[in-house]
Amino acid sequence: MSLKIKKQCVVLLSGGLDSSTVLNIALENYDVTALIFDYGQRHKFEISAAKKIAKAADIPIKLIKIDLKQFGNSALTDNIEVPKNQDIGKEIPITYVPVRNTIFLSYALALAEVNNIFDIFIGVNALDYSGYPDCRPEFIEAFEKMANEGTKFSQGKQKIRIHTPLINLTKAQIISEGTKLNVNYALTHSCYDPSIDGLSCGECDACILRKEGFKTAGIYDPTRYI
């Protein structure tokens, strides 16, 4: 009996909780290439986390280096203090990186086109999140439409699909689903303002959402906090 050959996909892997869960979801049905970005972020521990996660999954990676620091205007790429203990979702926070997901998905699309891959996975979430506009379903739908209009390889019957399996889940639901899929959350990194040793601050938006997610899910949080 011949083994069924899996389709290929690209997964945007940041090293965080959401993208690692998406990776394990994709691995169920696809052969995955992980796309990792070094974009000048202050929380560079997420890059090493992403590499460890990809190595554990035994999948190839493509590391893209770009300099979003040259644009600034974000606490993740500029000399701006990361806000702590703020009301999450009340307004778009200064940790928003201008056009980041548009840029990331464009690189994923280029990688997909040259390798004839029609499936791209990204861990955006529109429920328990900081209110970034490029994490909403409307943005993903618009990008997918643009991708199918503006690429050579999508002009036939086969079309590009941007998969967002977490977009309508709470953080607790994401953690519960990932736990079922044996995601090793101890390898992941979420904090926007870690210590020099990589300990999570526990007070930025990403840390608060992560802590509350594990607590609500009733699952042990392996994160190392300051």
Distance, first to last CA: 53 Å
Shape: globular
In DSSP terms (H or I, runs of 4 or more residues), the helix count works out at 6
**Mean pLDDT, rounded to whole units?**
96
The largest β sheet comes out as: 5 strands, parallel
Radius of gyration: 17 Å
Q: Strand-residue fraction?
A: 5-15%
> Count the strands?
5
Q: Report the structural category.
A: alpha/beta
Helix-residue proportion: 25-40%
- Strand arrangement in the largest pleated sheet: 3-2-1-4-5
The low-confidence parts are: none
List the secondary-structure elements in sequence, H or E: EHEHEHEHEHH
Main attributes?
226 residues, alpha/beta, 6 helices, 12% strand, globular
Write structural notes for this entry:
There is one protein chain. With 226 residues, the protein is of the alpha/beta class. Helix content is 34%, strand content 12%. The chain contains six helices and five strands; from the N terminus they run βαβαβαβαβαα. The mean pLDDT is 96.
